[in-house]
Design brief:
224 residues, mainly alpha, 11 helices, 4% strand
Amino acid sequence: RDLPDDRQRFFRHLGWFPGVSVDAYPAAALAEVSVAQAAGHLDALYDDHLLKESGDGRFRLHDLLRDYSRMLAGADDPARRTAALARLAVFYLAAIRAANRLVARPGTTAPAAAEGGESDQGGTVVPTWASREQAMAWLEDERATVLALIEEATAKGRAADVIGLAAAMGPLLRQAGPWDQAVRVHRNAATVAERAGDHAAQAGALAEAGVVLRLTGDYPAADA
């Protein structure tokens, strides 16, 4: 009750975040504020002991405070939650693709169908990285959140988000794994794409699953 109205709104939005720790960039997309405003809210909530600091500008909610935030957010219009998670998916799709341009090894290309998701990413603000190592570290930090967002999108029937995010995560999952998880992600994307009638995306997801299965040494499954 003592927080300013805009910070109350920001705190409620954090209850919808599917990951454990968050920094200003995805928080800005989720709450539909600028990155500078999101950073200010995160710092202020930390000062008020409503967030814990995870290091490198990242923050997390204590489990009880996360439950409280979700309870407050549950009183909002469900359409707001849908819109917030859609914005988050757009952010991650744009940010992962930007990171992939640094992560991709020389001479390698993604399958033509792997772009997926026809989201409008105009105006989306994403982090910048000075090296391949920094981009890879960011992808690894965000992996659990993105995979949770894919599960959320699957449950809610947002096919474009599932297809786009799974494809964008392909280079990281191929290089860093875990490969069993990667296979599940791509097979799920293939199923979602098939249901949506997007055969190009289905082919791209199956191709990615085949690549990972080959890396595990399961050649019959890769061939299938």
